[in-house]
Amino acid sequence: xxxxxxxxxxxxxxxxxxxxxxxxxxxxxxxxxxxxxxxxxxxxxxxxxxxxxxxxxxxxxxxxxxxxxxxxxxxxxxxxxxxxxxxxxxxxxxxxxxxxxxxxxxxxxxxxxxxxxxxxxxxxxxxxxxxxxxxxxxxxxxxxxxxxxxxxxxxxxxxxxxxxxxxxxxxxxxxxxxxxxxxxxxxxxxxxxxxxxxxxxxxxxxxxxxxxxxxxxxxxxxxxxxxxxxxxxxxxxxxxxxxxxxxxxxxxxxxxxxxxxxxxxxxxxxxxxxxxxxxxxxxxxxxxxxxxxxxxxxxxxxxxxxxxxxxxxxxxxxxxxxxxxxxxxxxxxxxxxxxxxxxxxxxxxxxxxxxxxxxxxxxxxxxxxxxxxxxxxxxxxxxxxxxxxxxxxxxxxxxxxxxxxxxxxxxxxxxxxxxxxxxxxxxxxxxxxxxxxxxxxxxxxxxxxxxxxxxxxxxxxxxxxxxxxxxxxxxxxxxxxxxxxxxxxxxxxxxxxxxxxxxxxxxxxxxxxxxxxxxxxxxxxxxxxxxxxxxxxxxxxxxxxxxxxxxxxxxxxxxxxxxxxxxxxxxxxxxxxxxxxxxxxxxxxxxxxxxxxxxxxxxxxxxxxxxxxxxxxxxxxxxxxxxxxxxxxxxxxxxxxxxxxxxxxxxxxxxxxxxxxxxxxxxxxxxxxxxxxxxxxxxxxxxxxxxxxxxxxxxxxxxxxxxxxxxxxxxxxxxxxxxxxxxxxxxxxxxxxxxxxxxxxxxxxxxxxxxxxxxxxxxxxxxxxxxxxxxxxxxxxxxxxxxxxxxxxxxxxxxxxxxxxxxxxxxxxxxxxxxxxxxxxxxxxxxxxxxxx
Length: 837
Description:
Shape: elongated
Largest sheet: 6 strands, parallel
Structural class: mainly alpha
Number of helices: 42
Helix content: 55-70%
Radius of gyration: 39 Å
InterPro entries: P-loop_NTPase (IPR027417)
Distance between the termini: 112 Å
């Protein structure tokens, strides 16, 4: 007996009804039909049996061979076997007659269905997304390599699916427009994995997709086009990963897939593109080891060209710019992002969360570190704190955070060490692997290889480490001590600190923020952390509940943190916008005066008159007595400096202010005074030539330097440098020079320090006739041009003008003429204008 197939039996039943001329059978027809079958075939098929055949009576068994033969003979066939054979031959003939165009049409329908599905799953409206150049580059290299299969890999969230969807859709459109005959079959790995459930081999799975009833028919079709295929055939399988099935089944799928590649390698017009995560590729590298040496495969493991082109990278500058333009509709010039802004929103998935937080108002050029942490918070909210197994995922990440170790620059957990935890939370662990929060990989060691677990990034790992510390409710002194004593890098400590600052601020608790000055491991990152806090205070106070918002505002008034940041933050123009956000809070009168004076001082150095006058207007609205407690009146000094540089006016009130300074210094101890006053008084000394003031204030700086804790390296370096500048004004080079030779290398990364450091060496070089100070001057000018310090730039040019060669001198003179004409300040023109016109 041929194999029983329900489809063939249904066809036989329809032939029976046609033979008996019954259009719509009812139970009563079964008696008449039984008589007709007996009369035609001389075989008895009971009325009851026919009722079971046509569904009027229930049956759990297939029809008997006797019944099948009787029905087949009634319809004119010799037997059921003969009928079955006829059906098979008819199907074969139909399948063999399928044209290339019909196969192309089937493939296109499947591809467009998957593309449409991907469009609806896209976090950013699909029409706003951008085409990824990397897919075209990959396909070109795949063709040049001559390989049958190309593995396009990339990190989790790198936009592989949308990138490939764009490419396939574009190819189908071009195919139609050019009347080409290429076939594009775009499907996903779920289809392939489901096929294995039904016992399909990869070849059988492909035949099923294309509408062939067997893999033999597919082979016949392809063999027919061995040398004369009308076009190329592209099979693109999206996002093949192992997280949804057991390892044993995945091994089986991959091995079958490798066999399919070997089979189709003989057809030069057949190409397979496999899209998967880099972590999956590396995890199963031993299975796909042929990708290194076998010319049938092309991947990141295939030498230099594969490494450069078979990987989906984060967004390029051009792609990011186009994406932002698509979203906000603006055509402003593109501003290159700072290096620290290249890490996060260039990853398409995280850009999606950035878009969800900001909508059409997003502006990457204004992205802050705090914004990046909000994006990661959104990511964790979606992947860990929502959905199924939420509590299990939280418990798992908390226990894994206890096992995190640092290996060079990577935070990771040994999978062997975490094995018992993983067994306890197996489902949650697989969920986190699937979402990309956790990644399994080898530790890179050749001899003693071991599997390690890493988080999506070190910042995400630091989140769970910080959350565990926060949940332990340590006192802030103990918390800082535990963080400081942890055997991890300073960078990881700072990552944890930022998360802790965010947790505390969101809770309306200012204790950790007020102790920021006592955290020794911050070092050169201190300014960045201060800016992070300002941003957090501003944005969390606007987004959190009213009670928390009010609590933050009350605790910030006269807080130690505000005093510290106002004393510490020199003229760091890159953090100017962050510090300015403190103005929206209820600061004390003194704090507001110093903050506005700092912003005005930065505007003066950059010669941004509108911003300068705005701050001076705000300061002038203060009552005169509010300035009485300050060492000098910053409003009066800044107004004088503006008038001096703008019109060359000497204000007698400022002369009196300077003359009163020694008396004020004798009344109180100003060793903890603001760095703002150090620089304002220094500028007054420079423009007035009052050496007596320089001598008196240098003593203030000397006492302050002696009082600084040795662990506060930058404060010591900065104070030494300013002290040295005052000593130069007193013509004490021999005392000043040793102070500057002891600076910490990290201090030179600070913008304020670098510019003052250059000023010291130029002036000391002029006194000692050391010629290399001209080179230092050129570097300082370049820094000023980069950060927009137009007034400082002009001053540096004047300092080195007399000493540079003639051709360079002309360049500096022309630059000064342009600056004086364009910006309207007249500083230094007295003698220079007569000599150089």
